[in-house]
Structure formats: C-alpha cells, structure tokens
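Onboarding guide, step 5: your first structure request.
Type a short instruction followed by the sequence, for example:

Predict the 3D structure of this protein.
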Amino acid sequence: MTGTRAAAVVLDWGGTITPSPDADLRDLWRAVAWVCLPGQPDRRRELAGSLEAVEKHWWAAAPPGTRTGTLTEILAEASRQLGFDVGAAARHVAVSGALDARVPHTVCDPDALLLLHLLRVRGLRVGLLTDTRWPPDWHSRWLARDGLLGLLDARTYTSELPFSKPHPGAFHTALAALHVHDPRSAVFVGDRLDADIAGARAVGMRTVLLEDGAARPPVAGGGLAADRSMPDAVIGHLGGLLEVLDGWGAPSRHRAELAPAPGPV
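The system replies with structure tokens like these:
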C-alpha cells in the first residue's frame, strides 16, 4: 500500500465521529415505554427493561458480518416476545423528536466538523460506513444537526444491507458509493479492531484506529488473520488523522483512479 496516495476516507460513526452509542439504549426504550404506558410507572420500567434485553440479545446472538437488523425488526421481535405492540410507539418517539432529546450520544465529536472540511479541502472524498439498526433518516437528522451531512459524499448503513462489518461486502458497498475502484487508495477510520480494522484491511484498504478506550481485540475464531487486526496508524483523537494522511503523501489532485464524483447518497 506504500506509494498509493489516499483519494478517499471512509469513517465509522459510533465511537469514531460520535461517542459510542451503546449507553443510549436504556434512554431510547424508556422513551418508547413512556409513550406505550402513560401513567403506569411500574409497567413502564418493566417494558423498558424488556425492550433493552431483547435488543442486547439480538446484537449478541448475531455472528460477526451477518445482518445488523433494523429497529423495525427488533421491535417486531420484542412485540412477539412480550406480547405487546411497541412499533407505533417507537415511530411516535422518532417523529416527535423525543429521540434527539433522549439520545445525547448522537452528538458528533468536536473535531469532526473541522476534520471533514479539511479532508475535502485536500481533495479527498469522504464517506461514512456504520453498523446500525436505526433508519437512515434518523442518522441524516443527527448529521444535519451537527453540520456534517453536506460534507459526506456517501453514507452506507448496514441496516440497509444483507451484511455488516467486517463482511467485505460492507466495505465494497461503501467504496462503490464513493466511486472508488482501488481499495488501496482509500483509508478507513474506526475504533474497533475486529469489525473496522480487520474488515477494512481484508479488502485492501489502509486503516487508522481511533484508540479512545473503545478498541477491542479481534473476535476469536472469526476467520480473520491476526495481522489484519493491526492498523496502519493509530490516533488518539480525530484531528490526528490529518497528520497521518499528510505523512502518507498529499492526495491525488487529478484523481485518475476515480470515476466522476457522485453526489451524497
């Protein structure tokens, strides 16, 4: 990969351009339970706990690289297990804007806005690839709120794909959305060694690990070679990415390895 100039950067969302969203599950399900069971505090707590447990089990039971699952599917499974229809309540929470108020972990890293601006000034295409169970329009709202939406040339959400990271298809989909034909000309930035670093390296991308305490070792028995979990660079904050990219050489201005740039998707 040495000697191939970077032409595009693909970033993870949770734990990378935003704090890890894991802690927000309880807040989300409390909001849903509040709408489902007004005036019934004991049953609300019970329902919120049950919904949280269903979602945690959904994620834990899914082998690496398989479908992430959508929130609609998770709600359907919760309804089946609990004998309680929570789908309409969740939609109400989202539409009413309560989700933004109750999920502060969607706010972007303070470095993210300037970073995306400077990446584009350098002539780089910028994409997003995230494992998510949330609908794309929720992410669009959060990204627009923080000024990031218009700075991303393409956004790829695994809730719309038949696979998730570290499956090669997730990374190839993100690259195709950016019209990048040579993975060696793209850099992936993420906080997880197993899903982000190993997955991106497996398709030929260069990798940067954001080591903020959320990084985890590769999943045992996941079928990934040990050396694929080693990033090409490690940074302690998002702004450190620029120094890494500059050290790898200025981006290609003529972009000979790329097709005409797409608009945001």
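Each response can be followed by summary notes, for example: Residues 8-19+107-247 form a domain with the Rossmann fold fold (CATH 3.40.50.1000).
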